[in-house]
TrEMBL record:
InterPro entries (UniProt xref): UPF0344
GO cellular component: plasma membrane
Location, primary (coarse class): membrane
Membrane topology, from the record: Multi-pass membrane protein
Protein known as: UPF0344 protein UB32_03910
Transmembrane region(s): 6-24, 36-54, 60-80, 92-112
Organism: Mesobacillus subterraneus
Amino acid sequence: MIHAHITAWVLALVLFFVALGLHKGGNEKGAKIAHMVLRLFYVLILLTGFWLLFSITIDIMYVLKAAVGLWVISMFEMIVIRTKKNEKASVLWIQFTVALLLVLYLGFSLPLGTDLF
């Protein structure tokens, strides 16, 4: 299940930048389709993440990682929405960067994750 979870969030990250690129390029229909597929990947990330969380003995660090993961998903959505509305999103980009780095560190440093750190 870890591989499904990692695949889901990597594809979501790619779709996030595709949706932003399509919107910035003026392809609103393509951006809307990419955004809807991105929302499907949010669900996949949540399902696989909660499956992993509840398949192990609950540890506070895994709960923290889940909370930061929810923060990343909310930043995905808020940045895409603000970009579509042509509103400023610089604070959201800072939050996104911090949350993404934190969730990657937590995910790869915990015993259930891949041993990168």
